[in-house]
Amino acid sequence: MIGIKRKSVVVIMQKQEQDQKNEFGIIKYVNDISLEFSSVLGLDFQAGQIYMNLLRMGPTTTGSLAKEMKIDRNKIYRKIYELVSTGFVSMTLSSPKLCIPTDPENAIELVLQKKKKEIDKIKKILFKKLME
Asked: The domain that contains 74 carries what CATH number?
């Protein structure tokens, strides 16, 4: 009997270990996607994660977001205001305030517009330099 219980415990432990590896793989995959998505949008990793979580969760409070992501609320507030200033997130005027993510297609459009302005600025600088 003891041998059977020991085998069962070993099998359970192996399954738990495999589950942890699978969970780690999923987390790594999500982090890789977050990093790539953040890079495309011109956001740092944490801002990208916050934006992706908002897309997943829908409109939510900063407190709920901080709790869900297990990140200090002050950091969430700072990142949310960065995202608001860049147009990736909007805030309601209601109480409590809700964070609402910009539709991903609109977010990509924002990035394209920003890049176009940067290119135009570089063109102007180059033109000025060539004319000197």
From this structure: 1.10.10.10
Rounded Cα distance, 29 and 89, in Å = 24
Contact by Cβ (8 Å): 80, 50? yes
Count CA within 13 A, CB hemisphere, residue 30: 12
List the beta strands (DSSP E) in 5-121. 89-91, 99-101
Enclosing domain of residue 53: 2-102
CB-based burial label for 123 (10 Å; 0-12, 13-18, 19+): exposed
Number of Cβ within a 10 Å radius of residue 21: 10
pLDDT tens column, 43-101: 888 898 899 899 988 999 999 999 988 999 999 999 999 999 989 999 999 889 999 99
Query: Within a domain: residue 42?
Result: yes
